[in-house]
Amino acid sequence: MGGILRRATILALVGLGALCSGQTTRAEMPTVAVIRADVFSGAGPEAKINADARYAAVMQALKADGIPCRETADSIMTRYGLPEVPVAIMPWSPCVSDAQLGHIRAFLNRGGRMIVFLASRNDLSADLGARTGDIAREVLAGQFHSMARVSDAIPALPRQLDFGINRAGELWPAAGGRTVYTWHTRAGSDAGMAAVVMSDRGAVIAAPPSAGDNGQLRLLLRGLIGHFAPGLWSALAPQDPALVGPVGHYRSMLEFNSALRRAEGDYLSGARSDMREALGLLSSVPDLLATGRQEEAIAASRSAKQRAWRAWWRSYPSYSPEMRGVWASDTVDGGWNDAIAKLRAANFNVVFPYMASGATAYYPSRVLPRTANCCGDRLAEAIAAGRKHGVEVHPRILGLFTMGASAELKEQLRAQGRLAKSPSGVDSSWLCPSNHQNRLQIIQTAVEMVKDYGADGVQFDYVRYSWTDRCVCENCRKRFEADTGVRVNAWPADVLSGAHKSRFLQWRRNMLTSLVRTARQKVKEANPSATFSASVFINWESHRDSFGQDWKAWIDEGLLDFVSPMTYVGDTDKFQEWVRKQEGWAGDKVPVAMGIGPFADINPRPTPQVVLDQIQAARKLGCEGFVLFNYREALAEDYLPVIGLGATSTPAEIPTRARR
Questions:
Q1: Does residue 402 belong to any structural domain of this protein?
Q2: What confidence tens digit (pLDDT) does each residue in 147-186 have?
């Protein structure tokens, strides 16, 4: 595919190759101060309970909108004044001291604005353009049912807010103030009392803040803060595409849209359509705010950003032929039919479930004992689902790994001399690669999968040693001496660190290569159309010694129909460095389906964006496909839909033929 691909100018690669510099150009949310009451001299025993509840209600409302806040208190304000913020909120402080009032006035004089609920001092109310009286109880049921906006002077304020309280503070406008809300009854008539009075310096509200008002407090605070600190609307409901972002690798919708307009390619038509919708949504925000429809304005702005991100995902091109696979366990979330249907919906074309280790099977095998926790026929279920949805199933054999084997089975394997051995003892997790029975079972299992079950292919995994110092069992000694003609006096020291180390490393490589060679031959004899592949470690140069996995030799000899290096690297630059090396080792002799690990044990874990970047990087560097590790509900919900919007938006054939 190095020849077909993929040298076209595409937005995703522009973003990948040169990320836009600088910070995201979005509006900053204004910070507000919230004053907690902690001075209650002479206020009565219920004062603290009420004050804490009202403070919590305001904090909850601000948090719901993501408005950052600085917490302060009466006692702190008395000593230090109010912080440098555009707006301060007093949920209810029943005992405002002269010192506090002085700090509030200083705050107002330097341009700050106050929002006060049930002001406890007339001089504080007067500073905000209001006059307050006593607490009035409702005369008729439903008298204080709702607040109705008096005029359109502040259009971002909601037209009506339903509070449904049974008492309210008496409130009138004073010098510099004006009534912006009046109380209305449940029947909708004017109750003749001001509910909110506002001036250029702040607002006084005749009702206590409550957490049980179904979001009405949040709407009121949002409208008032947005009036006094207009940057709130630029942050909550931005209408300028230059302030909405990031979008993909671009700082803003404006930058992405400019790049999209310059780019060429019919495959971008869907992305362009989404961007037109996104820009249309943004253009509706001013009118929505002007008519007091806060929620709709915010929803339109958020939908615009979501639509812009959808356009970004759709800007990734889709190619064929291409292998689009996932590794999987023997069982999957939702069952095989559901999982493969979701893979097919995203135009993935192959799944690699492990169905056997070197010691046990996850299906009723004639070759291997069945794992203790296995029921039914998982291999048959997976293949049936694959046939139904048109997705190939290539079961994996975890070649020399003993996963799934019980303690009793491992003891049998140990007694039979079939477990690998290190200088310090037996490795119960690994089979000896030179043992004839181990090799025969692995080969027979592969044949069983493609012949008896009709699997589309089989993939070898864990075809390696567990480390450099094994296997040094007595059978390996005999085989090594017979194969090389070398007489080893000090075993295993002479082969691990002595004169025969180099020959021993090569012998280990040959042992695994011969296993792969025979397995391929038998698989092709049993089912000529079945593919034979391997998932391999990332670094052939060093791992051929440390693990004996000489996968370049397997490719050079033509033993694989394709190879999947497990390049589980979170950093995309480092990922590309490895892919370049792996493509060089493959030598344009066999398709490379690059392994990418969104759920591998790496830190940081690749996000959907990083996975797409790595898919694009692999394509750009000549790979014929990719395989993701591994299938689970989070992959189906968070990754497949995003990838399927663009990068795999059209079906693809599987490229398993040799490149030459």
A1: yes
A2: 999 988 888 899 999 999 999 999 999 999 999 999 999 9
Find out whether 189 and 256 touch, Cβ atoms under 8 Å.
Answer: no
d(CA 529, CA 518): 17
Cα 601 to chain centroid distance, Å, stands at: 15
CA distance 317 to 650: 9
pLDDT band at 386 (very low <50, low <70, confident <90, very high): very high
Q: Name, in order, each residue with C-beta under 8 angstroms of 69's C-beta and a sequence gap of 6 or more.
A: 31, 32, 33, 34, 59, 62
Provide the token pair at 552.
Answer: 């370049």
Phi, psi values for residue 26, rounded to 5° = -115, 155
Q: What is the pLDDT of residues 576-624, one digit of tens each?
A: 999 999 999 999 999 999 999 999 999 889 999 999 999 999 999 999 9
Sheet arrangement for strand 178-184: 69-73, 32-36, 87-90, 113-117, 202-205, 190-199, 178-184, 144-149, 160-165
Which residues is 392 bridged to in the sheet? 350
CATH code, domain with 579: 3.20.20.80
State which of 209, 234, 259 marks the end of a domain: 234
Helix or strand run (H / E) with residue 45: none
Both 243 and 387 in one domain: the answer is: no
Residue 462: φ, ψ to 5°? 55, 30
DSSP per-residue codes, 382-395: HHHHHHHHT-EE--
Q: Quote the CA–CA distance of 467 and 226 in Å, as a whole number.
A: 63
Domain of residue 175, CATH code:
3.40.50.880
Joined together, the tokens standing for residue 392 give 């190939």
Side chain identity, residue 200: D
Q: Is the pTM of this model over 0.70?
A: yes
Alpha carbons 411 and 417: distance in angstroms, whole number? 10
End-to-end CA separation in angstroms for the chain: 10
Which residue range is the domain that position 451 belongs to? 323-467+531-645
Residues 386, 380: Cα–Cα separation, whole Å: 10
Distance CA 582, CA 651 (A): 26
Residues for the chain: how many in total?
660
Please, is 77 exposed, middle or buried when counting C-beta atoms within 10 Å of its C-beta (0-12, 13-18, 19+)? buried
Nearest alpha carbon to residue 348 among 361, 356, 339: 339
Q: Alpha helices, DSSP H only, in 427-489?
A: 436-451, 474-484
Q: Please count the structural domains in the chain.
A: 3
Residues 6 or more apart in contact with residue 160 via CB below 8 angstroms: 146, 147, 148, 149, 184
CA 348 vs CA 324, 340, 345: distances in Å: 5, 9, 8
